[in-house]
Amino acid sequence: MQGKVVVVTGALGALGRVVAEMARSRGARIAGIDHAPSQLSETPQRIVMGGVDLSDAGQAKNAVDAAAKHFGRLDALINIAGGFAFETVGDGDITTWQRMHALNVLTALNASRAALPHLAKSTAGRIVNIGAMGALQAGSGMGPYAASKAGVHRLTEALANEWKGKVTVNAVLPSIIDTAANRADMPKADFSKWVTPQELAEVILFLASDAASGVTGALVPVGGRV
Q1: Is 71 within 8 Å of 30 (Cβ atoms)?
Q2: 169 - beta bridge partners?
Q3: Considering the entire predicted model, what is its pTM?
Q4: pLDDT > 70: percent of the chain
Q5: In whole numbers, what is the pLDDT of the chain averaged over residues?
Q6: What is the pLDDT of residue 226?
Q7: What is the pLDDT of residues 102-125, one digit of tens each?
Q8: What's the CA angle centered on 182, arms 178 and 183, to 5 degrees?
Q9: Which of the four pLDDT bands, split at 50, 70 and 90, describes residue 225?
Q10: Phi and psi (nearest 5°) for 24?
Q11: 26-30 LR contacts (CB < 8 Å, sep 24+)
Q12: CB 61: neighbour CB atoms within 10 A?
């Protein structure tokens, strides 16, 4: 990742922080974007733009363009921004479906559309999205979330074909990620079977690297130990 300029959405979240810091430790310059306000100071290797609603196409374009202007180019976009809801179809609310679509699909779509013109100028333009293993077959209560992440999978495949030869577009499909929030929500689970943010970050950064130049349109499961 030495010398790469990488945009990380959801950069202030549990996974986003790990990915951004791991990339920075390997020589990348990071532009973080998040809906939450940022308290991080700017450094030569990092800027963080807080208070950005990536489900709004205009805000997404302004933030991505600002990152490209600040560093002079973009080499990779890692779309981590998103959300989760557990709600059955029959007892749930239509607004949950709309919220999951906005948080998971529209954020990735808008950031990608804004970044692609910049990434196409790079010699190694990369987009890495966050899908979900749970979207491959939805269980009870997973409908809104799984449907939105399935949308991310199809977005990944479509963009990979549309930009073949110019920008690679792949997605990682994690099982349950071992975060403090997930442990609090599922205290009786076997945490050893979950994928750690560090393990997931390694796969994400591989797909964002020069070594993954021949990989595009892939949906890569990560985790799910038995």
Answers
A1: no
A2: 127
A3: 0.96
A4: 99
A5: 96
A6: 45
A7: 999 999 999 999 999 999 999 999
A8: 80
A9: low
A10: -65, -35
A11: 26/1, 26/2, 26/205, 27/1, 27/2, 27/3, 28/1, 28/2, 28/3, 28/4, 29/3, 29/4, 29/5, 29/71, 30/6
A12: 16
Lookup result for tokens 């989760």: 84
Res. 42: pLDDT tops 90:
no
- In 3D, which of 177, 174, 173, 168 has the Cα closest to residue 217? 168
The number of C-alpha atoms within 13 Å of 55 and in the hemisphere containing its C-beta is 11
Tokens of 136: 């491959």
Q: Judge residue 88's burial from the number of C-beta atoms within 10 Å of its C-beta, 0-12 exposed, 13-18 middle, 19 or more buried.
A: exposed
HEC string of the chain? CCCCEEEEECCCCHHHHHHHHHHHHCCCEEEEECCCCCCCCCECCEEEECCCCCCCHHHHHHHHHHHHHHHCCCCEEEECCCCCCCCCCCCCCHHHHHHHHHHHHHHHHHHHHHHHHHHCCCCCEEEEEECCHHHCCCCCCCHHHHHHHHHHHHHHHHHHHHCCCCEEEEEEEECCECCHHHHHHCCCCCHHHCECHHHHHHHHHHHCCHHHCCCCCCEEEECCCC
The total of other beta-carbon atoms located within 10 Å of residue 93's CB is 11
Check residue 41 and give its pLDDT. Answer: 81
